[in-house]
């Protein structure tokens, strides 16, 4: 009986010795991690230091308790050995115990390596701003390859079909860089600012081959915001609040997907705010309003390129444009159901031609989750002179002169887009979309120019697109996209082209 008790005590002693060895290994690993964490100043790193310190204290407490119990076991074992030393066999460490100890040490070393890597990441030098508040650099290095079966307005960002021979291009000019900053509380509000640039400015204006290859830096969007719990005030360079969403695409970044085919995407300076009229657990009713400085439509600038004008037609009117939107969104999830209606008005005055006109529009937008994996979204609008917002077939108005007489007309415009999204998994989605922008042909025809296929004669632009976007990791993203563009002119047959695009991006 004494022999059995002695063996049992010996086994218990071995197990406690094993536990003590593991604890000692923990204590050997923890100081290295703690020493690295202590060197950093980031707030998140300080939390990790406190967590590691707490873990050390728990390990030390457990070790002291283990040492106390081990001392008691040794006393009992010594008493047994004193009474029957000759009959107690020597118990050696079993192979299983040695293997368990080796596995435990390996696991601890792996955990230590992961912690050291995370602490090193937290300890990296951050971008420092003059205000000393955090500033984050982000963006995506994006390479796109585009094949156009027929002629288009742009080989790399096609939006309009011209007819003629096609093209093939590879570019990194749609790469996007961004800065995001968080500031102090002001008037009880959180402050935030961000800016985005790309390299897709019109390089055709220069004959320098290297500049053409690299692209020119272009300001895309910018925001500065004051955020309260139920209200927001901001100034921004961004798309109009008439069109809060855009179809998904990786190959159409410089100009968002369905640009000039029903997507009012153009970025304009704005200052405004929003207020939550009603907020419940089910959803939020919100009103938004802003003043907007609407840019001139691209073809308007082209038509008047030989006439110097120091200000846009909206600025020449001396009155800003106004826009407002009323929306209801579900708060059940981030991409939950949402519906909104909006309106826009902006006066214009063309100094070079001596006439004025008004831009106006009414619009509606929606986003409807159909199932867990599918979503339907879209936008529709109707108005007049919407070229400055990204519609109107590139123009706000048409004009011509006959002798001493000047004739002009602001163009009506209607259109929109619809997208069906299938998000199979967090990293894989399919998107199909269609968009149309339409100017009445009977308004254009009396002002048609002699060149049949041109922006001035473009009446209707339609685009159908489908893509797959796959992200194998948080940093990498790939896409394959197909587009079919159909452009109708009042003095020429409809032109069409197929566009096949490949995109590969690295996000940081």
Shape: elongated
The secondary-structure element order is: HHHEEEEEHEEEEHHEEEEEEEEHEEE
Q: What summary fits the major beta sheet?
A: 16 strands, antiparallel, barrel
Query: What do we call the CATH topology of the largest domain?
Result: Porin
CATH architecture of the largest domain: Beta Barrel
As a percent range, the share of helical residues equals 25-40%
- Average pLDDT taken over every residue: 83
Compute the number of structural domains: 2
| Strand adjacency order, main sheet | 2-4-5-6-7-8-9-10-11-12-13-16-17-18-19-20
Low-confidence stretches are 1-9, 23-42, 84-93, 121-125, 204-212
Q: How many DSSP helices?
A: 7
Radius of gyration: 34 Å
CATH superfamily of the largest domain: Porin
CATH class of the largest domain: Mainly Beta
- Helix-and-strand structural type: alpha+beta
Task: Please outline the helices and strands.
Elements: H1 2-39, H2 43-83, H3 95-122, E1 127-128, E2 134-148, E3 167-171, E4 176-182, E5 190-201, H4 209-214, E6 216-227, E7 231-239, E8 267-279, E9 283-292, H5 298-303, H6 313-316, E10 321-330, E11 338-350, E12 355-369, E13 374-384, E14 397-402, E15 405-410, E16 412-425, E17 428-438, H7 441-444, E18 458-470, E19 476-489, E20 492-507
Antiparallel strand pairs: 1-2, 2-3, 2-4, 2-20, 4-5, 5-6, 6-7, 7-8, 8-9, 9-10, 10-11, 11-12, 12-13, 13-16, 14-15, 16-17, 17-18, 18-19, 19-20
Description:
This protein is α+β, with helices and mostly antiparallel strands. Helix content is 25%, strand content 42%. The chain contains 7 helices and 20 strands. It has a 16-stranded antiparallel barrel. Strands 14-15 form a two-stranded antiparallel ribbon. Helix 1 (2-39) runs antiparallel to helix 2 and helix 1 (2-39) packs parallel to helix 3 (95-122).
């Amino acid at each position: 009986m004494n022999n059995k008790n002695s063996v049992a005590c010996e086994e218990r002693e071995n197990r406690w010795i094993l536990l003590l060895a593991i604890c000692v290994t923990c204590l050997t690993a923890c100081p290295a991690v703690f020493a690295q964490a202590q060197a950093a100043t980031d707030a998140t790193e300080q939390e990790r230091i406190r967590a590691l310190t707490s873990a050390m204290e728990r390990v030390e407490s457990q070790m002291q308790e283990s040492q106390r119990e081990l001392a008691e076991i040794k006393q009992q074992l010594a008493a047994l050995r004193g009474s029957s030393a000759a009959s107690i066999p020597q118990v050696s460490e079993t192979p299983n115990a040695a293997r368990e100890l080796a596995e435990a040490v390996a696991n601890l070393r792996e955990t230590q390596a992961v912690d050291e890597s995370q602490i090193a990441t937290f300890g990296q030098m951050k971008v420092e701003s003059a205000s000393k508040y955090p500033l984050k650099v982000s963006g995506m290095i994006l390479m796109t390859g585009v094949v156009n079966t027929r002629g288009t307005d742009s080989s790399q960002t096609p939006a309009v079909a011209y007819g003629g021979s096609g093209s093939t291009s590879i570019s990194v000019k749609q790469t996007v860089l961004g800065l995001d900053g968080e500031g102090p509380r002001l008037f009880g509000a959180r402050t935030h600012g961000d800016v985005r640039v790309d390299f897709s400015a019109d390089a055709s204006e220069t004959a320098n081959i290297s500049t053409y290859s690299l692209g020119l830096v272009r300001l895309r969007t910018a925001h500065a915001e004051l955020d309260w719990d139920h209200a927001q005030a901001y100034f921004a360079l961004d798309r109009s609040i008439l069109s809060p969403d855009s179809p998904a695409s990786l190959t159409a970044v410089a100009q968002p997907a369905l640009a000039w085919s029903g997507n009012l995407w153009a970025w304009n300076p704005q200052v405004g705010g929003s207020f939550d009229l009603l907020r419940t657990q089910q959803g939020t009713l919100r009103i938004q309003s802003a003043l907007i400085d609407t840019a001139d439509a691209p073809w308007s600038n082209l038509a008047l390129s030989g006439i110097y004008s120091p200000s846009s037609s909206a600025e020449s009117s001396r009155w800003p444009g106004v826009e407002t939107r009323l929306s209801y969104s579900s708060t059940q999830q981030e991409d939950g159901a949402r519906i909104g209606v909006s309106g826009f008005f902006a006066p214009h005055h063309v100094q070079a031609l001596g006439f004025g006109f008004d831009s106006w529009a009414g619009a509606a937008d929606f986003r409807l989750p159909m199932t867990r994996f599918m979503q339907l979204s879209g936008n529709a609008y109707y108005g007049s002179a919407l070229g400055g917002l990204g519609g109107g077939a590139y123009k706000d108005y048409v004009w011509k002169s006959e002798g001493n007489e000047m004739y002009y007309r602001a163009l009506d415009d209607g259109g929109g887009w619809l997208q069906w999204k299938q998000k199979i998994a967090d990293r894989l989605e399919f998107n199909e979309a269609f968009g149309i922008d339409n100017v009445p042909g009977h308004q254009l025809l009396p002002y048609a120019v002699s060149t049949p296929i041109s922006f001035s004669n473009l009446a209707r632009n339609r685009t159908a697109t489908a893509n797959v976007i796959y992200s194998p990791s948080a940093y990498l993203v790939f896409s394959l996209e197909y587009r079919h563009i159909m452009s109708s002119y009042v003095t020429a047959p409809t032109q069409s082209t197929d566009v096949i695009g490949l995109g590969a991006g690295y996000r940081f």
